[in-house]
Specification:
By secondary structure, the chain is mainly alpha-helical. It is 44% helix and 8% strand. The chain has 3 domains: 252 residues, Lysozyme (Orthogonal Bundle); 71 residues, no CATH class; 71 residues, Membrane-bound Lytic Murein Transglycosylase D, Chain A (Roll).
């Protein structure tokens, strides 16, 4: 595997269960038994596998009460009909139906229907582009729905455990896969670069486990954790590992949740969702241009005539409001293809822009960010057990900012209270219930 990962010991045991499956031909390559002593597996460090990350931003508690869902068999039957009518079955990852998947279908279509609607609407803008990047990197396009359950397609999403972006990368994992993460730039927030990194990471995981369900489980829990689960459970069947409870609770729910998201996401109309086609493809054709390091986006906008919000939108990883200071003096930024000539025609003027003092630039951007706060509020509805401190952490903004935006002098809140927060302030995921963020942690 080109030296990216050390070999992991896995057991090759066949598993057979009576589940309804739509399994495309050639889904899983032949299993391989990799030779390494179990002790080495415990001690050998793998790329980016030892950091905690909490649950999906905006997601309710992980299936705690889903066991109480009524009419599970009916949901399975309806989903089976949906699958039978599908013309675009996934090519690589099987859609397997069972009671656990049905509970998550209920989650997306009944219990958190409004949440799902927002996920699908945001995803509609990014879907063709993320899927193309995944294909270009030789991984299944259906992994698009992994981003749906990770972040709801919010580039600024930030978990309590500090996983960031559409793909919820931890800092170490992201950097190991080529993403810049420092005080000036966080490429985990760049959906283009982070999708490329996620594709590479998922490809490595599938090369290790030769099984997409186990690869997805490892994306959630970490490679070491899944290897230990396989050794304890004495099987490589994800569903049996879940039944034997050798997997973390969140990971047991992770694969069924992914399958359910894909079934609903591929068939929104069958579940009563109406997803309007975006009026324009704002993420369509794009390119990169080289600009001086340390210059403000505001100044680039003035010189080129390209709207400031467009530059910010395409470069959400550069969160200080100016291009990162780098050796060599030039930085590549993303711009719509239509804006390319504006930069080329003003190349001389751009080269004359004076880099800002870094400390002053940071203060300037902070003040601009507060000034913009009234332009893009989202609403968080307080639930039982919430408090302002946990909500502010889950949203990725300071307690002081949250109180200021909502005109609160004290920290008292009540269930049903509506709190405003600015989408671009930090982690802009709409946390429909941050209890999952506060209570669920996983290792990646």
């Amino acid at each position: 595997m080109a030296g990216r990962f050390a070999f992991l010991l896995v057991f090759v045991l066949s598993g057979c269960a009576g589940r309804l499956t739509r399994n495309p031909a050639g889904v899983q390559p032949p299993y391989q038994q990799l030779a390494m002593d179990a002790a080495q597996v415990e001690n050998r460090e793998l790329v980016g596998s030892s950091e905690d990350v909490s649950a999906t931003p905006e997601a309710p508690p992980e299936a705690e009460n889903l066991e109480k869902v009524d009419k599970i068999d009916q949901i399975v039957g309806e989903a089976a009909k949906v699958l039978a009518d599908m013309d675009d079955m996934p090519e690589h990852i099987p859609l397997e139906l069972n009671r656990n998947v049905a509970k998550w279908i209920h989650f997306f279509t009944v219990r958190e229907r409004g949440l799902t609607q927002r996920y699908l609407e945001r995803g509609a803008e990014l879907k063709p582009h993320i899927e193309q990047i995944l294909r270009d990197n030789d991984v299944p396009a259906e992994l698009f729905y992994l981003a749906m359950i990770e972040s709801g397609f919010v580039p600024y999403a930030r978990s309590r455990a500090k996983a960031v972006g559409v793909w919820q990368f931890m800092k170490g994992t992201g950097m190991n896969y080529g993403l810049a993460v420092d005080g000036y730039q966080d490429e985990r927030r760049n959906w283009i670069k982070s999708t490329e990194a996620a594709a590479a990471y998922l490809k490595d995981l599938n090369n290790i486990f030769q099984n997409w369900y186990l690869a997805l489980a490892a994306y959630n829990a970490g490679e070491h954790r899944i290897v230990r689960s396989i050794m304890r459970g004495k099987t490589r069947d994800f569903w049996i590992l879940a039944e034997r409870k050798t997997l973390p609770r969140e990971t047991m729910n992770y694969v069924p949740k992914f399958i359910a998201a894909q079934i609903v996401g591929r068939n929104p109309e069958k579940y009563g969702f109406t997803i309007d086609k975006p009026a324009e493809d704002k993420w369509g054709s794009y390119t990169t241009v080289s600009v001086p390091s340390g210059v403000r986006f505001q100044d680039l906008a003035k010189v080129t005539g390209v709207p400031l919000e467009t530059l910010r939108q395409w470069n959400q990883d550069m969160h200080r409001g100016f291009t990162p200071p780098v050796k060599g003096g030039l930085v590549d930024i993303y711009v719509p293809q239509a804006a390319f000539n504006a930069f080329e025609d003003n190349r001389v003027a751009i080269s004359r822009l004076k880099p800002m003092n870094v400390a002053r630039a940071a203060r300037t951007f902070a003040s601009e960010r507060v000034a913009r706060a009234g332009e893009g509020y989202e609403i968080y509805v307080v639930r039982r057990g919430d408090n302002l401190d946990s909500i502010s952490r889950a949203l990725g903004i300071s307690l002081r900012t949250l109180k200021k935006i909502n005109g609160l002098r004290k920290s008292r809140i009540h269930p049903g209270q509506r709190l405003k927060y600015f989408v671009g302030a930090s982690a802009s995921a709409k946390r429909a219930s941050n209890r999952s963020v506060a209570s669920s942690a996983r290792r990646r």
